[in-house]
Amino acid sequence: MDVAYDNPMDPGYDSFNLDDLSVAAAGVTFALPSLVAGVERNAAGQPVKYITQPFTMTLNGDAEGGEAGEALIQGLSLLNYEGLTLKGESYATYDPDKDVVTYEAKKNFFELVDGAKFSFGGKIEGYSAYTKEIGSSFNIADMADGAEPDPEAMMSAMGKLTFHNLEFSIADDSLLNRAFNAAATANGQDPEEMKSQIAMGLAMAPMMVGDTGIDMALVTEATTALGSFVSEGGTLTIKLAPSTPLSVATMMENPDPTAFTKDSLGFTATHK
Asked: pLDDT-based confidence at 3, cuts 50/70/90?
């Protein structure tokens, strides 16, 4: 396992198999029937591909089984759930010479069944350097005593990253309605009225940008897609595909928002 500490991109194993994990305590039951993950390596033994096969896990509570179970049931009931079923999968390739990791959005997701599916994709450079610096910025002993991570060290680590492209999507399958129903009930409002208020606020956002220098086209596209998603559900997808890879260090050195337009970032926000 020492190799995992020397190279943060190396998990220290070639394959990982977990079968029939089940935990029951104080009225809470967690089950993970199977988890299979693997790492493919090049001729030099360096990791070049990471795969976690599709998996499913469940979380359920029993109010009569203990305080934790009762609390879980109460929490889930706010969103009108009796239990949770979660699914996921991940797939990534890595170029050790360029320190570039690439995720495929279709194969990288986390899903709350009868809730929403969250997918992520992208091509990120400097990931190993970022991970090393993040690791060195955390003092585990100090954090155990309540210390916070050094924000300057974390910003320095972020400066190691360069984004070639990014994609994030949320496919709603009842989670929005559940959340609005819960929030509206807590505030004595009608869920549809609350949705309308938020959508109206988003529609006004471009006017609030004013003279800040933030690209109006970017804000308009983002808020239009987000407003439609809030009102109608469906799938919200946000993408970045800059013509020139986006260096976080450069962004921190030049935080002028006028330098980052919809076109220069290759920004798109869509709702379907």
From this structure: very low
Structure tokens at 1: 């396992």
- Render pLDDT for 113-127 as a digit per residue (tens, 0 to 9): 999 999 999 999 999
CA atoms of 161 and 71, how far apart (whole Å): 41
Distance CA 87, CA 34 (A): 11
Domain boundary assignment for the chain: 1-97, 116-126+161-272
Helix 175-187 / helix 191-209 crossing angle, nearest 10 deg: 100
Q: Which two tokens stand for residue 3?
A: 């190799």
Residue located via tokens 């030099």: 44
Q: Tell me the CB-side half-sphere exposure of residue 167, using CA atoms within 13 A.
A: 17
Looking at the chain, the whole-number percentage of residues with pLDDT higher than 90 is 72
> How many C-beta atoms surround the C-beta of residue 27 within 10 A?
19
Q: pLDDT for 7-19, tens place per residue? A: 889 999 999 999 9
CB–CB of 162/172 below 8 Å? no
